[in-house]
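Progress note, project year one: complex with zinc ion.
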Amino acid sequence: MTSRLIVLGAGAARVSATTDNTYLVFDDGAAPLLIDCAGSPAHKLYRAGIDPCDLAGVLLTHAHPDHIYGLPALVQHLAQVNYASTLPLYGLGETLHAGQQLLDTLDVNKDFLDYRPFSSQERQRIATRSGYAAYVSPTRHGKPSVGVRIEAGGRVLVYSGDTEPCPALNRLAEGGDILLHECTVNEPAKGHSTPEQVAETAATAAAGRLGLLHYYPWLIDRFDEVQSRIAKIYSGRVTLAREGDEYALG
Ligand SMILES: [Zn+2]
Ligand SMILES: [Zn+2]
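Model obtained:
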């Protein structure tokens, strides 16, 4: 089976009728990895053809609500279907602590969860139960945060997480076939990226193609203008990631 990255939501913290918060699942057909956990994760996974019980892990990029608030719902769902395995939760210590508190508050912190904190060093390999490799590097955001690099079938996909431009992300994204990058702001702002900043990162990393996500409605309405702004800096293909989109890795 071809490995694929499926977009479960592509919007920023403020959602709309057509954009949910950004979260993703990488599916190699054997050990899917959920990346961030916004609302209704089990429902979204079933719709993507993935049984939540088959997850090889959940990787949380940072502890802002739009990236972790679905965690209790996922854990509650797994408990209700008599989940019989162990679910690794990957994240920075601060992120996992916030997740743990959320689960404790709602009394859904289960024995089947295996907390696997990683440090803020660059390019840490996240252990998975499959043949693909997932790496994380710290990014620059309001909370301690990471970007994610997945290598599978000789191809590379990188997800920026929430971030302003930073050298660690440039290095993580280097040579990526697909760069999924947040494009939250129109003017430079702390912790997020403008179209021009995304384009700079994509050009510096020599990314094969670029998908924009974690955006507000203005970006959908003005995507032609955004594409022109990016094209002045980055010459690769640029698309707007939408819920249900799949990116094949091979
Ligand atoms: Zn966010
Ligand atoms: Zn954030």
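Residues 4-243 form a domain with the Metallo-beta-lactamase; Chain A fold (CATH 3.60.15.10).
The chain has a mean pLDDT of 96.
No further modelling is planned for this target in the current period.
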